[in-house]
Amino acid sequence: MLPIVETPTLSLRKYKRVISDELFREVKSLAKGLKRLKVVMINSTPQGGGVAEILANLIPLMKGMGINANWYVIPPGKKFFGLTKEIHNALQGKEYSLSFQSRRLYHYHMERAAKLMLDMEADIWVIHDPQPLGIIHYLPDFHPSISHIHIDTSRPNREAWSFIEPFLLMYDRIIFSVKDFASKDLPRKKIEIFPPAINPFTNKNKPLSLKMAKSILRSFRINPKKPLVSQISRFDPWKDPLGVITAYKLAKKKIPNLQLALVGLFLALDDPEALKVFKETQRVAKGDPDIFLFSNPQELASLKVDTFVNAFQTGSDVVLQKSIREGFGLTVTEAMWKRKPVIGGRVGGIKIQIKNGQNGFLVSSPEGAAERIVQLIRDSRLSQDIGSAAHQTVKEKFLMPRLLRDYLRLFKELI
Length: 415
Fold this sequence. Notes:
This protein is of the alpha/beta class. Helix content is 42%, strand content 13%. 48% of the residues are buried.
């Protein structure tokens, strides 16, 4: 059996005051016909990154609805995760050539994981992202099965896409976060579009007073009396941390006391590239006492990671997510929920969350980001109005019961 990730049970009733009555009733109605349905979800890591975040909150809700849902992870491997990170980057458009040895390594790990699954049973299987995707090649009776791809595959490297496409076609359904991510090569009848969602009641998302947030920031040497811009995301080239620093430096010419925090704690087991990107970011930031980089979870001492992130999102004047590729961007959703003005890259899933000028701003360059930073910090009324509209958007579209409903509708179709 694959390693299991233990999860609690969460009642839908907890969400009653933050979702519509219509959504509440629909989820309850759908779940009635799915009691004791055995659902197995599989991904590559139990913590770090958006997929683990979603599963940690979706699985408990499914269990609360009477569904026998469980979450498993494939066995880790340093070389394997190095390879899958390269495939991940290639699927998001990076130049890449997949060698025979790399293909063999991927298949070796898929066969190894599949052997561990021979004693597992499920009514529905859900496989998240490319890392465990190829398991289906070694489990021909693996149905009904769903592949949920969370990354931006709108402009993939063709060689990488040709490698994963045969696996994708073996699944009964393929879920993408955004319509544009679904290749026209795939059968339309197999494609589903499920934008991700957040749990507003976690330590990361529940209300934290501004006073407490500022106190936490002060303990990490950030001056609460000076304006602060933050980006909370892994140190990853697609998140463009160097572009964020460029935007900050441009904005600082007009707001001399501006501070920048880049928060990218090394939590994900499947991201060996992060250290390399962090070191490059560190080199570029060197010498500026108003740039703060956070990568080591041990720096937090007794403070929980979720509370740390909450403090930065709550205590920042502006939150950035200047990605150049982005599957969705849960950190955008989280900051919007906290009524923060968010400046996001005009890419991927960020575009379906932010309506430019209404509930946030979309930018395509460091110069554009800098202009919006200055505008928001100088105009507190605009910042407040944007933040309020952002919160309402998340409430209506991006809370976990909506994603649960999407899944339950699909389960009902497949069984």
